[in-house]
Automatic annotation (TrEMBL):
Entry protein name: Pentapeptide repeat-containing protein
Record bears the keyword 4Fe-4S: no
Tree of life domain: Eukaryota
One Pfam family this sequence matches: Pentapeptide
Record's keyword annotation contains Membrane: yes
InterPro entries membership: 5peptide_repeat (IPR001646)
Spans traversing the lipid bilayer: 21-40
Alphabetic keyword roster: Membrane, Repeat, Transmembrane, Transmembrane helix
Length: 632
């Protein structure tokens, strides 16, 4: 049953036949499949090739488009560049053409200006020649007419008022028409004709416009212009350099910016003149009168001005550097900001003078009196002011650095904030002065009198205070007040803490006198005699530190004894045992003070006690006399 079904199933073919059939069909089928596969593959390759060709074509087209676009851009850029170059060339050409036209115009203008200038210069030259000729003719005519007038009036034009008026009017008229050069010759003519001689009734040239005239020695042959009278004239920017102008008269003249350097102006009169910025450098001005002048910023450098007078003059910011100003009068003058560096001012007078912010650097001013003046902010650095007087002066914030102030008098002066560094204040008087905030670093204050002064916040050392002659009633930098000067007698106050009298006092008889507490006050001790008979105690004071005052005979001894009972006498003897002070007592008293002149370096004090006598303080101090006294 199995086999027939198989046959029946495969159309009567046996397995073998089927296998043979299949084997015969394998090759054609394989070829067919291969052919189909190859065909499909070729189609796929052809499709890929066509796609690649399309992509290549597309890329080529894009490249061609890019190249075309770049070419168009390059063409556009080249066209724009060419157009810009053409425009630049055109612009440069226009600018060049414009520059050429401008240069041509400028050249034409310059040429025209030169022609105008030449024409103007020619006209000016012709005018100047004409004017010079006119001025020469005018001057010659004036000289001739004035010569005739002078001759006709016997050389005395001012004797007749009518002639004087005619001469003045004609002279002023001619001066206005002449230049400075010819005006100098006109003045020279009148001077030589004795019509401008001071003290000889000179021709009145007040208000004459003589500005910028040159009378210096280089322009006029003769240096001598003594007694020249130009009172009231206008002489701005004029020059009188290196001329002898002794006894000349420039009173009321306007000499602004004039030059008198190296000139001789002895006894000349410049009172009431305007001397702003005038240069007097190197001139000799002995006894010259400059009262009530306007001398702001005037220059008196290296001038010899002995006995000159600047009373009531305005000398603000004037220059007196190296000026020899001995015995010069500055009464009532205004010298604010003036410079007296290295000047010599011996004997000069500064009464009522304004001296704020003046510079006296390295100046010599011994014995000058600045009483009551305002010297605030003034510079006295390195100046020499020995025995100068600053009594009641305002010397606030002034500078005396390295200044020599020996024996200077600052009594009642206001010196708040003043700088005395390295200054020499030996024997100076600063009584009742205001020295608050002042600086004394390195200053020599030996024998200076500081009594009654106020030194709050001042910079001063204890050694300097101890070297002073007196600090009685002085307010110290820390605010404390010294009520009395040191006692020149050792243990003269009967100190309870030191009861050994033999160390300082000579007792006769020995141990007859002792220091003992007072009966009514155990805190206070007294000198007391223990015997019924007379006794003495003596001590020799040493005054050698006051040797300069002793040499000058200006030392005053101040002797004070307080509360005595049964004291017979107190004597003071000099080194030759001559009596200086003698006090004899018949009864007790509270305080006894005595002043006496002394010429001894070592005076001796002797106290003589009666029976059981006693006394309290015995004090010996010194003062300086205002004047020297004679010694026996």
């Amino acid at each position: 049953m199995t086999e027939p079904s198989f046959v029946q199933r495969f159309c009567g073919l046996s397995m073998r036949d089927v296998l043979q059939l299949l084997s015969s069909l394998v090759l054609p089928l394989s070829l067919g499949v291969f052919t189909v596969i190859v065909t499909l593959h070729q189609q796929s390759v052809a499709s890929q090739q066509r796609e690649e060709d399309r992509q290549l074509a597309r890329g080529q087209r894009e490249q061609d488009l890019n190249i075309s676009r770049l070419q168009r851009l390059q063409d556009l850029n080249m066209f724009a560049l060419q157009r810009e170059q053409d425009m630049n060339i055109s612009r440069e050409q226009r600018i060049h053409d414009k520059d050429i036209a401008e240069q041509k115009r400028i050249q034409e203008d310059i040429l025209a200006e030169k022609q105008r200038n030449m024409s103007e210069a020619q006209r000016y030259h012709e005018l100047r020649v004409t004017q010079e000729a006119f001025r020469d003719t005018l001057l010659l005519s004036y000289i001739k007419e004035m010569g005739d007038l002078i001759t006709k009036n016997n050389g005395r034009l001012m004797a007749d008022p009518i002639v004087a008026a005619i001469a003045r009017g004609k002279t002023l008229s001619v001066i206005r028409q002449l230049d400075a050069f010819r005006n100098a010759h006109l003045v020279q003519f009148l001077y030589e004709a004795k019509q401008l001689t001071n003290g000889n009734n000179p021709l009145d040239l007040s208000d004459a416009e003589l500005n910028e005239i040159d009378f210096s020695s280089r322009s006029v042959h003769h240096r001598n212009l003594r007694n020249l009278a130009l009172a009231g004239a206008l002489l701005r920017n004029s020059s009188f350099s290196n001329r002898d102008l002794s006894n000349a008269n420039f009173s009321d003249a306007d000499l602004t910016d004039a030059r008198f350097d190296l000139s001789k102006l002895e006894d000349a009169d410049l009172s009431n003149a305007i001397l702003v910025r005038v240069d007097f450098s190197g001139s000799v001005m002995k006894s010259t009168i400059l009262n009530r002048t306007q001398c702001r910023r005037a220059r008196f450098y290296n001038v010899i001005a002995l006995k000159a007078s600047f009373s009531d003059s305005k000398l603000d910011a004037a220059n007196f550097v190296r000026c020899n100003c001995r015995e010069v009068i500055f009464y009532g003058a205004e010298l604010g900001g003036a410079d007296f560096s290295q000047a010599t001012l011996l004997g000069s007078i500064f009464i009522g003078t304004r001296l704020v912010r003046v510079n006296f650097y390295n100046a010599i001013m011994n014995e000058i009196k600045f009483n009551g003046l305002d010297l605030s902010f003034t510079n006295f650095t390195k100046s020499t002011c020995s025995r100068a007087v600053f009594n009641q002066a305002k010397v606030r914030t002034a500078h005396f650095v390295n200044a020599i102030l020996r024996e200077a008098d600052f009594t009642n002066a206001n010196m708040n904030g003043t700088d005395f560094r390295e200054a020499n204040l030996r024997l100076a008087t600063l009584v009742h002065s205001d020295l608050k905030n002042s600086i004394f670093i390195g200053a020599n204050m030996d024998m200076a009198n500081l009594s009654l002064s106020v030194m709050v916040n001042a910079i001063v050392s204890d050694a300097q205070l101890h070297s002073a002659a007196s600090i009685r009633d002085t307010v110290l930098p820390n605010g404390t007040k010294i009520t009395r000067d040191p006692n020149m007698l050792y243990n003269g106050h009967a100190d309870c803490w030191h009861r050994q009298l033999r160390d300082y006092w000579q007792i006769n008889p020995n141990n007859a006198i002792i220091i003992t507490p007072e009966q009514n006050s155990s805190a206070n001790c007294i000198f007391a005699s223990q015997i019924e008979t007379s006794s003495k105690m003596s001590q020799q004071a040493n005054l050698t530190r006051y040797n300069q005052l002793l040499i000058w005979r200006q030392l005053i001894i101040v002797f004070k004894v307080r509360i005595i009972e049964n004291i017979k006498s107190i004597h003071m003897y000099d080194h030759m045992n001559r009596t200086i002070i003698a006090l004899n007592f018949t009864h007790g008293f509270a305080i006894e003070t005595l002043r006496a002149q002394i010429c001894s370096y070592q005076p001796t004090i002797t106290v003589t006690f009666d029976s059981y006598g006693w006394c309290d303080d015995i004090e010996l101090t010194v003062e300086r006399a205002s004047h020297a006294f004679s010694c026996r």
